[in-house]
Amino acid sequence: MREIGHFIGGKQVAGKSGRVSNVYNPATGEVQATVALAGVEEIRAAVENAKAAQPKWAATNPQRRARVFFKFVELLNQHMDELATLLSSEHGKTVEDSKGDLIRGLEVCEFVCGIPHLQKGEFTEGAGPAIDMYSIRQPVGIGAGITPFNFPAMIPMWMFAPAIACGNAFILKPSERDPSVPIRLAELMIEAGLPAGILNVVNGDKAAVDAILTDPDIGAVTFVGSTPIARYVYGTAAMNGKRAQCFGGAKNHMIIMPDADMDQAVNALMGAGYGSAGERCMAISVAVPVGEETADRLVEKLTPKIESLRIGPYTDEKADMGPLVTKDAYNRVNGLIDRGVEQGAKLVVDGRGFKLQGYEDGYFVGGTLFDHVTPDMDIYKTEIFGPVLSVVRAKNYEEALDLPMKHEYGNGVAIYTRDGDAARDFASRINIGMIGVNVPIPVPLAYHSFGGWKASSFGDLNQHGTDSIKFWTRTKTITARWPSGIKDGAEFVMPTMK
Ligand code: NAD
User: Fold this and answer.
1) How far is the CA of 383 from the centre of ligand 1 (A)?
2) For the chain, what is the domain count?
3) Are residues 33 and 145 in the same domain?
C-alpha cells in the first residue's frame, strides 16, 4: 500500500504521529493509499524549516522570486497529464476537469510572475519641508493554508503562489481525501528553484489544523472549505492573533428570465449543475425560472439532458461527470434526495440507485432534478454538494431576486437574460460576491479577486488578484526628513500640515 507522508524542508518525510487515513479511488471504493495525519510535532518541524529559510527568501529580489514561478508554470505544463490523472484518481472527477483545476491554479502562478510590479510601494516626494514619505509591503513571515478536497491543485496554488511570491514561507495542510497532488506541486516548486523550507506540505485533519491555529510563529492563515469549519478557523486564528481569510460553502442560484435564450440557459445549467458531480463551490444548485411558462420550458428541456448524462470513472474520456469523493458524501447526498421527496418537492429525475457495471462499489450518484422546491425545504437551505439541481419557480423578477438575497450563502449567482436593464439592476442590488450575466460559473480570473459574501466568506480580503498581495504583506510607512528641513528647537505641538 502506498503511504503518503509530508513534504518538509524540501523533501518527502514519513509521518510521526502514527495516525493515518485512507485515500480511496472513488470510482471503485478501493483504498489506494494511506495518508499520514500530522500532530503538533510535524507542524512544528515545518514551522522550524520555514523560519530558517524565510528571511533569505524575503531578501531575494522580486525578479528572482518571480523567476521561480516562470519556471514552475513551465513545469506544470510539462507535467499536466501526469498531475491531472493523479488528481482524478483520488478526487474522481474527469481528467479534463482536473486539467481545469490545474490550469486555474497555474493562472494565479502566471499572475504572480508580475510580483516585482505588484509588490511595489508608494512614494510621496515633498510631503513636508525636505520630507519624503513612502509605504512598503513586507511579507507577513510564515503563512498557512488549509484546503478542501474539491480543488486539490487550484486552491493550494491560489494560496501558496501569492504568499511565496511576496516573500513568505508557507505551510499547506491539504485535504486528507486527495493529498497526492499538493505534494507533487511542492516537488515541482523545488525543481523550479524554490529554496527548501519555503513551501512545506503537512497532511492531517483537525489536530494539524489546531496546531497551525495555535502556533505562535504563523502570522496568517487562509482557509477554504465548509462554512462551519471556516467560521471556526476564522475565530480561532483571530483569537490567536493571526490575520485570517476563510472561505466557506455556497448555494448558487441562476435566474432565468422569460427573454433568456433557453437553449443557452439549459446548457449552462447542465455544466454548472452537474460538472464535477456538483462538487464545486461555484456550482449552480438552484435554478429560478421567472414565470410558469419559463419554468415549464426549462424543466422540459433539462429533463432529457439530465437523463442522458454520461457518468463514469475518470478513465472514461467521454464521461460528463464522475463519482462523489467518498462513501460519506454518497450517503449524505442520497439522504438529502430522500429528504426532498419527504418534504414534498417533485422528483423529476432520480439519481439514487445509479449503478455502473464493473464499478458497483463506486460512489456514483446520477444526475438529479427537483421541481417545485420551496425555500423552507432542506434541499433548498443546505449545500448538497452533489449532482442535484432544484428548480424554485418565481412569479416575477422581484420574487426571483429575493431568493438569493435572503439565502444564508453569498458566493456566486447568475442571471440569464437579453435585457441589459434587468441584468444591470440585478448586478447592482444583489448581496453576493460573484455575479454572472449569461455566465453560469463566474469565477473571476487570476488578476481579479475571488470571494463571496455572507456565510460564504469570513475576513475582508479575497483570494488572488491584488487582494492576495495585500493579504500576504504588511504595510510599513516611513517618513523621512533630511537635515535641511529640520528647524532648531524641540516641537511639542502635534505636527500637522496647517
Ligand atoms: P471541509 O470543511 O470538510 O474541509 C476543509 C478543510 O478543513 C480540510 O483540509 C479538512 O481537513 C479541514 N477540517 C475538516 N474538519 C475540520 C475540523 N473539525 N477542524 C479543523 N479543520 C477541519 O470541506 P470539504 O468537504 O473538504 O470541501 C467542500 C466545502 O468547501 C464545500 O462547503 C464547498 O462549498 C467549500 N468550498 C468553498 C470554496 C470557496 O472559495 N468559497 C471553494 C471550494 C470549496
Assistant:
1) 12
2) 2
3) yes
**Which CATH number goes with the domain that contains 120?**
3.40.605.10
Pocket test for ligand 1, best of 151, 157, 177, 205 (most atoms within 8 A of CB): 205
35 pairs with which residues across the strands? 4, 21
The enclosing domain of 372 has a CATH number of 3.40.309.10
Reported as a single tens digit per residue, the pLDDT across 175-208 is: 999 999 999 999 999 999 999 999 999 999 999 9
Q: Which residues contact 331 (CB under 8 A, 6 or more apart)?
A: none
Domain that holds residue 18: 2-248+456-478
Query: Distance, CA 245 to ligand 1 centroid (Å)?
Result: 13
Please indicate, yes or no, whether residues 203 and 324 belong to a single structural domain of this protein.
no
Which grid cell sits at 185? 506541486
Q: pLDDT tens digits, residue range 13-37?
A: 999 999 999 999 999 999 999 999 9
Atom 20, ligand 1: residue with shortest CA distance? 206
CB of 224 sitting under 6 A from ligand 1: yes
Provide the whole-model pTM: 0.97
Distance (Å) from CA 465 to ligand 1 centroid? 22
User: Is residue 166 among the annotated active site residues?
Assistant: no
**Claim to verify: residue 16 and residue 146 sit in the same structural domain:** yes
